[in-house]
Every structure is written in C-alpha cells, then in structure tokens.
Amino acid sequence: MSKEEIITRLAQSVIDGEPEDAVELAKQALDEGLDPLVCINQGLTAGINRVGELFASGEYFLPDLIIGGEAMKAALAVLEPALAGDQERQILGRVVLGTVRGDLHEIGKTLVGTMLTANGFLVTDIGIDKPAADFVSAAREANATLIGASALLTTTMPEQQKIVEELKEAGLRDQVRVMIGGAPITQGWADKIGADGYAEDAISAVALAKQLVGVPV
C-alpha cells in the first residue's frame, strides 16, 4: 500500500470502530517508515472527527462513538511512542476532566476525554466521584488551563459550583477555565454558577474547549 492508502485506511479503521485493524495499520505505517505524527493527525484525528460528525448528524449512535474512540486510542498507543525526540503533537491546552462527587457516571466523561485528546488537548482524567478539591489540586499539578466537570444527577450539580468557588479561593480562577456538562446541565446553570461554558456532548465539548483557549473552531 502507498502512504496515502495506509493513512486513509487508518482513518477508516477508526470510523468503522475496528481497534485490531487500527493497531495493525499503525504498526504497518511504522514498518513502512511513515511519519507517526502525520499518521496521528491525518489518520486518527481525521477518523475520530468524522465519527463525531456522523454522531452529530444522527447517523452514528453512542456505541459507534465509543468503539471509534477505542480504535483511535489503540492505534495512538502504537504511534505516540514512535514520535522522534524533537516531534510532539501540538498541545492546544491541558485539561483536567472528571465526574463530580456523588456521581458514578463515566461514559460521557470518557468520550469527552477521547475527543479532546484527538483534537490536541492533553487530558488528565481524575475519574468519577471526585470532590471539587480534587479538581483544583489536579489542575494545579497539571498546570491545566481547563477543567471539565461532569454531573449526571441533579443532586450532584452543586459540586460543579464548588469547583468554581474553590478555584477562586486557591487564586487560580483567572488561569483556569471551567466547562461543565451532563444530562441535567444547562447553559443557565453554567451562567448561574459562574462557569465559563456548557457542552451538551463530546463534540460540542471540543468546540467549547477550543473557544476557551482561543483556538479557531
């Protein structure tokens, strides 16, 4: 296969949600001497963005988004270690991501992390059931420019407000933007608690994150 064919098939493996194919194509790309950064940007990122477009248009559903993300991450695990010492993926921003205290939902958060990673963000996923203090300390440690906090229950929504408040107390509010999401969350709630934005799904989360760090969408 030509270089172009390998990259095209790499993107298609993500679109089709085929992790094993994605891994084999990533290995083949390296064996053929292809630039791993080109494979990531033109293959994996292009593929997962297409998955996002299909999801947004209603042609793909949540399982399609999940398996597309798994294929991308599997191939990324092969390609990233092969980046040369002077190569690195463009980092648009550092994001601390998690589900707030009292909430054990994970799928939406994980999908947001996958899409942000694919689009050039360095993501620190602190997991589920995390208090506001954990978000703030993780943001400090990671030198994060963004916090993404998910709440899927109305009873856990106030923890998102605590994140904003604790960032202020820590003197970090000017450096760290806060975006929130989850089934009961609205833009009105984001405005009320002083968050910087609300995203209803993983696709809009990427657009919001880019907007918050000043990158054209």
What does this structure look like?
The chain has 217 residues and is an alpha/beta fold. It is built from nine helices and five strands. The chain has a five-stranded parallel sheet with strand order 2-1-3-4-5, sandwiched between helices. The protein is globular. 43% of the residues are buried.
Assembly level: single chain
H/E element order? HHHHEHEHEHEHEH
Distance between the termini: 33 Å
**Strand arrangement across the biggest beta sheet:** 2-1-3-4-5
* Strand tally: 5
Overall morphology: globular
CATH architecture of the largest domain: 3-Layer(aba) Sandwich
* Residues in β-strands, percent: 5-15%
At CATH level 3, the topology of the largest domain is Rossmann fold
Class inferred from helices and paired strands: alpha/beta
Gyration radius from CA atoms, angstroms: 18 Å
Largest sheet: 5 strands, parallel
State the helical fraction.
40-55%
Q: What is the mean predicted local confidence, pLDDT?
A: 93
The number of domains is 2
Low-confidence stretches: none
Count of DSSP-assigned helices:
9
CATH superfamily of the largest domain: Cobalamin-binding domain
The CATH class of the largest domain is identified as Alpha Beta
Keywords for this structure?
217 residues; alpha/beta; Methyltransferase, Methionine Synthase (B12-binding Domains), Chain A, domain 1; Rossmann fold; 5 strands
How would you summarize the topology of this molecule?
Blueprint: H1 3-15, H2 19-31, H3 36-56, H4 62-79, E1 93-100, H5 107-118, E2 121-130, H6 132-142, E3 146-150, H7 157-169, E4 177-181, H8 187-193, E5 197-198, H9 202-212
Helix pairs in contact: 1-2, 1-3, 2-4, 3-4, 4-5, 5-9, 6-7
